[in-house]
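Hi everyone, sorry if this is the wrong subforum. Our group has a chain we'd like a structural model of before ordering constructs, and none of us has done structure prediction before. Sequence below.
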Amino acid sequence: MSCNYAEGLSPYEHKGVLGIPEKFEAIEKLNEKCEMLARLITESKHIVVHTGAGISTSAGIPDFRGPNGVWTLEKEGKRPSTNISFTDAKPTKTHMILKKLIESNKIQYIVSQNIDGLHMKSGLSRKYLSELHGNMFIDECSLCKRQFIRSSPVETVGKKCSGVPCASGYNGGRPCRGRLYDGVLDWEHSLPEDDLLMAEWHSSIADLSICLGTTLQIVPSGNLPLETVKYGGKLVICNLQPTKHDNKSDLIINYYVDDILEKVMNILKLDIPEYNEDTDLTKLASTEIVEWTIKKKDVLVLEKVFKAKCKGVKKKKILIKTKRNSTESNGIENGNCKVIKLEVKQECDISEIK
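Answer:
Right subforum, don't worry. Here is the predicted structure as tokens:
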């Protein structure tokens, strides 16, 4: 459960701004903005979606900084009234829509801050997903760094060793002398290298980044959508609360992400698939060894694409001057914010793109 995961983390004071009031678009305005988002999706060639805790609340998993979030209520000595177990939680409409959009080649990659495993449960391939903060349904080897799917969530967080031997020797694989540990990051841990590289490169290549259910307060994950902006792409933010980067976005939609994406799917004339246990790898993991490691060949292929498009291109420089009151933090509360965008002409080495 989210509460158990939060309680398992080390004490940390700087959890960001908590409990900011939620905002909701008027229905007419919502419909208009969903039309705009659908048009952006249709017109874009490389789209990256950045997901946060807000896409899992409809599955019964509380977020962290919302009005009824785990950390918001924690300050009041309370706990969320709804808190389903990670085992019982099923992918939401948003998770299934994102899987469909990947399969339809409408979006190309997903960068997630979530540890609930719902993207994996939806049947999404590892090829299209970076899990920057880990996954409750993953064990990772201390030596070979290969990841293996669990049928149940880990009992610890913070990369603690279980003492179980690496599973790489099964299914005819090369044996490894490493031991498995939980794959969930604590505050002091570095982000997983390949996940972060794939997230950075996809974000840089993208001509559109869409942020769903995140206030973008945790770095470096919260700053990755800015790579799209710096290379000339567009930024869309869908969230109930103001975010750290609202002043750099091209479109903001304040509404439930399930409802936003359902409207977009109707406009795109795409069906929304139902969750299917047969494609849920946590179910398969109860009888088989299932690997969840990012393939090195996928990293190398993307590196070539990134260098071809971005090497020799100067990023746009974005200078943000913010005048804050003493109560403001991270630039996301209501206050006076002056935004100055300094655009630098792109200088491109043509030989790197051909």
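For your construct planning: Residues 319-354 have pLDDT under 50 and may be disordered. The first strand starts at residue 47 and ends at 51.
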